[in-house]
Amino acid sequence: MSSVKDWAAPTxxxxxxxxxxxxxxxxxxxRLKVTGAAPFAYEVETPSPPAYGVLIAAPIARGVVxxxxxxxxxxxxxxxxxxxxxxxxxxxxxxxxxNPRNQRGANPALAARIEHFGQHVGVVVADTLxxxxxxxxxxxxxxxxxxxxxxxxxxxxxxxxxxxEEDVRIGDFEAAFAAAPVRLDASYVSPLxxxxxxEPCATTAWWDGDQVTVHTSIQMxxxxxxxxxxxxxxxxxxxxxxxxxIGGGFGxxxxxxxxxxxxxxxxxxxxxPVRVAYTRQQMFQATIHRPAVHMxxxxxxxxxxxxxxxxxxxxxxxxxxxxxxxxxxxxARSLYAAPNxxxxxxxxxxxxxxxxxxxxxxxxxxxxSLECAMDELxxxxxxxPIELRLRNEPESDPETGKPFSxxxxxxxxxxxxxxxxWDRRSPKPGQVRDGRxxxxxxxxAAIRGNFLLPAKAGVRxxxxxxxxxxxxxxxxxxxxxxxxxxxxxxxLGVPLSQVKVELGDSDFPPxxxxxxxxxxxxxxxxxxxxxxxxxxxxxxxxxxxxxxxLYGDDPELVTFGGGNIAVDNRAEPLDRLxxxxxxEGVYVEGSITPAADARDYSQHTYGAHFAEVGxxxxxxxxxxxxxxxxxxxxxxxxxxxxxxxxxGGMIWGVGTALHEYNAVDPRYGSxxxxxxxxxxxxxxxxxxxxxxxxxxxxxxxxxPMGIKGVGELGIxxxxxxxxxAVYNASGARVRDYPLTPExxxxxxx
Amino acid sequence: MKTSFxxxxxxxxxxxxxxxxxLDALREQIGLKGSKKGCDHGQCGACTVLVNGRRINAxxxxxxxxxxxxxxxxxGLAGDETLHPVQAAFLEHDAFQCGYCTPGQICSTxxxxxxxxxxxxxxxxxxxTADTMLxxxxxxxxxxxxxxxxxxxxxxxxxxxxxxxxA
Amino acid sequence: MKPFTYERPxxxxxxxxxxAEVPGAxxxxxxxxxxxxxxxxxxxxxxxxxxxxLPLSQIEExxxxxxxxxxxxxxxxxxxxxRVRARYPALAQxxxxxxxxxxxxxxxxxxNLLQRTRCAYFYDTTKPCNKREPGAGCAAIGGIYPNTAIxxxxxxxxATHPSDMAVAMSALDARVDVARQGGETRSVALDDxxxxxxxxxxxxxxxxxxxxxxxxxxxxxxxxxxIYRKVRERASYAFAIGAVAVAGGKIAMGAVAHKxxxxxxxxxxxxxxxxxxxxxxxxxxxxxxxxxxxxxxKLMGRLGVACLTTTAGAGSDQ
Lengths: 749, 167, 318
Description:
A: alpha+beta, 29 strands, 25% helix, 24% strand, C: alpha+beta, 31% helix
């Protein structure tokens, strides 16, 4: 595709003749999931009975394994194999076939050099899970420990500019800030958080000759395949990686972990299928996390609220050997107008588990600062928080001057305010009581970038008319199976029941996987392209077939609908055509690549959050009472799954505001919360009367279907709306997330 | 150790390692993998099954203790062709995303509806001596032992309302 | 999990004898805490004696007008009991504030009392803990875990008892019936069941080895309102960071000590005519904090006042 301008042309998707696009059809794989029949990676059938691997973690933050005594473990019942750094098979370096940064966390498995607490140093494989787990506890290691930098706050003076990144300066921020009649200078902290996917990382692996098959829980098919092939020092063609159902990813399964490496190595060594899963505790200590971010916001405004000076500076952390920057300031570059601007990041390297992307990396933590700062500035100015935002609404991207592809932030705020009853908010905090609860309202804006990556898809039609879309894509619960079925059915004019979708297989045409809310647009556009190619192939087939009623017609005039291929009133069912003219079926592929001029537009999804909370003045407890969001995210493919994505994101915002944090023990480098009893994700009782709506939108600049991502937008800004509501309810302004009873109680006036 | 119980209406006899939890027995020995292992410590609810009609965490229950019990898992709820009403409601209301907590949510719902029908109170029951009214607040509290990281709670609530005849 | 053997005796006497005879044997009832800890090898029994099917699961009226809760009554069963709900609402609330529906269906009355601390360093076996390994040291002291004791802690242990149910039982002046091999039985005040850590935090109760709790006996409720309030970091399915039970003017607190903490100083002050704020101030004057748990003093003081105020003047049937 050469230009985004080509994408405005009518398509089967925009015409939507059978109405499948946007329809809230049930999840494609839903029946399998509600009956428990969808096999996750640890559950797939194996060609012969599997053995069970259990991982052993190091209890030190930094150092080296000096010895391992495996004698007891090896003698324990049922044990088939015990590996330590000394005995684990050689593993190849990663990086030639993939970005090494993305897979650094698992390379190599069972290294002698310890880079963080909880790094795996051993694996035991046994005939049963019980025997493996018991034997794993019998392996004895000794270590030499080395000094480690463990505490972010203690290392802020070591913060450096991330490699290859510089601050973005527009105008003269310092001068404008100094001259501004109204100023706000406030710092906010977003804590370290864990993904806490419900399904722990898991792999089932077996070998057939020199070919390995792995079922693993990973968001990126090709990345995992290449990473494992490099580790095993074999061509990627000898690794088949499958990931058909994934019990939550949220960015945390964007890379592979030791379960993949060690299941494959152990299966090869034993000549037997091997299953390896992380325990819940290992999920906390030995996968990636969202790093903490310290943010300083400085706003300089005129008395009427117009911003002259704007700065957001973020300091964050990553593991020493695994560079990663939580880009908490990036979103702000496109949000509000201000002629003098400063945004940038600093990075502290620590000896703790690796930081990495977690649902809406950047926005999820970054918006917690600016969207509260805007609330604080509005109060200083005596303005309604929405009015302050309206007065700083830019006409084009405030940093680059590029036109917005679409931008309905104002519509989201005004529509949300109307429906939520924002006019009932008292501007003065602490004015409303309901029983023992102080009640308040808060709002925040939402912005999240939209992306399109290269991808392919394959689609075939068989003689019975079944259309099968195949793609090396993943569905983390986002609805990928379902929307691809809808796109394919609508493109080819067939009922949904005629379409099959097969994903998560490295043998299929590659897609980048799920992440960064690029999945639907990227995979969907490739599926759409494949569908369009199949239309052309079928049209050529029909007009060239003397037995077809379309014989000799212009293929450009061929239409598809109701399961038929037609020109004017001459038609025949697709299955009849294929059975006669191509009985072996027709298979085509399609692909999508970003348009050359895609970067000429500032392209985002937008929204506005509104929250009502209660604060108990005796205990500092905060309870959500009501939450509503309005979002604009391009054409919506499935009303049901898109809504689930967006409300799911908002609920992550509730967790961010009220519950979720982890902390590193300065003596050991371990996380204080290592299970789901101590790391609190929102429970059902926390989520009260939460709903959302989408504004009508089609973004022709985004991709051929005018759709955008919805997976991450919902969390962006959501936590700030709650923090602002807490302030409005109680007068407690807490800038250190989450707003636990302890902190709210301390901040109550 | 020999142990026998009724599983989804069928007699099941196993020779068990006493260490084997009911969850691992179901998943690894019997091959019913619908019950999920999310935390293995009673902290998420993904392993919820019904024992003698009551919901429990299968991960914290040793299988050998279930001699003679009647156990129902997610695989035992649906008929040959028809979904259980709670399963159908979850599907219709999109009450799941990744699907990993879903079998536990559904089994928990079935157990919860029975508890409410039996007049059990919850923490949010204002009058402990009054009849049980399954309000939204009651459903949310009673279902809080099933975490859903995809955060399908609003949709789960809608599904339960519908399945419980409360919509 | 270490290997162990398992049996399910048919009679109480047999169960008591087996645990007394077999080295390393433990009683198993609901298992929701014991199995949890066995998986982490914090508990390593060699033999489990399953008492869950012994005839200890009745709730009966006592001649004095109270209730006797059998040891293996489930938490759900007790909270659902109409007599408990009518006469001991604080107990029903406390039980329903704990854990989840699934766990309450399995967890038993006696098991709930005997559950072990949720201190993060007790659960993390890579850290020193005097409960797990006497003399090893206490990682919680000087650590970052905030949910630690502000009353009765020692140099050896600052852990708290996590039960909600036990806090209400303390305020209700419950007693615990205990049996041992040979048929000997005794009755212990609930307030005397759990111990403060002292130098031996691994010895958590006054039960002797081989003793089994057979019931909890609730005396007739004292006149006056009852309430249980729990503060936690999410709305449900979380352990308390502070809790208060008030029943007939008796006050107990949760998540503040190695045992349900009977607020004796506050009760004395109330008896001497103090108002709720004065009474709680008297109690909280005895608190000792370590920086990470300072917030509990303000929290518990205010929560106690709120509970006393709510229950003041209410009848026992409220």
